[in-house]
Amino acid sequence: SQELEQSPQSLIVQEGKNLTINCTSSKTLYGLYWYKQKYGEGLIFLMMLQKGGEEKSHEKITAKLDEKKQQSSLHITASQPSHAGIYLCGAGADSWGKFQFGAGTQVVVTP
Amino acid sequence: EAGVAQSPRYKIIEKRQSVAFWCNPISGHATLYWYQQILGQGPKLLIQFQNNGVVDDSQLPKDRFSAERLKGVDSTLKIQPAKLEDSAVYLCASSRKRSTYNEQFFGPGTRLTVL
Q: Which of A4, A109, B51, B115 lies 20 to 30 A from A10 at CA?
């Protein structure tokens, strides 16, 4: 089965600073998703990457996919308190919706 | 459009008791998923439905967990009897069709505590 490893497990960043989260798969990626979760709540979709070299941005969040390395990164520029939460990467183990998630990265933004 | 609805939001039971969770997906979504998320871990897929048929239940502990989606719309997940290790958030998600390239929309989850 596919394993998705996220790093770091957690990070504390000062407001206004940048941060990067990585997600690495041990097998072929069928779509790579980034979700955000606040404690006790469901998952909020951020973006989906499908093709190698693809890069997407939404507000201050940018995600990239390196298909050869089976790796994705999520970068937040000039972090704000609203960026605090748990970031999860997820990917298909096949093209039919069988989905797996990484363990998540907890982001804390300090004043 | 209305999102994925789940109930109850919280449930506390004692071990060996039974519990059921309900999920109503987004209207028109053919695929429905149940995930289990243990504290500090990512969600783990338990079962995937396409309309009212099961397409993947390989990670569902079938000796105690069961799920159904009788009319291809809403779904229930049951645990009978519950164990301490079942304490988790149970998330329901739906997507328009059965494809990894279709976004999954998640409900708020049901937090289960087994004492």
A: B115
Pairwise CB contact (< 8 Å): B100 & A4: no
Which of A43, A51, A54, A56 would you mutate first to test chain B, the one with the most B CBs within 10 A?
A43
- The CA distance from B16 to the nearest CA of chain A, in Å, is 25
pLDDT of A77-110, one tens digit each?
999 999 999 999 999 877 777 789 999 999 999 9
Output the CA torsion B85→B36→A108→A4 (10° steps): 110
Q: What is the pLDDT of residue A36?
A: 96
DSSP code of B104?
P
Q: What is each CA distance from B33 to B38, B46, B93, in whole angstroms?
A: 16, 8, 5
Rounded distance between C-alpha atoms, residue B104 and residue A43, angstroms: 9
Q: What percent of chain B has pLDDT over 70?
A: 99
Of B41, B98, B109, the CB nearest to A96: B98
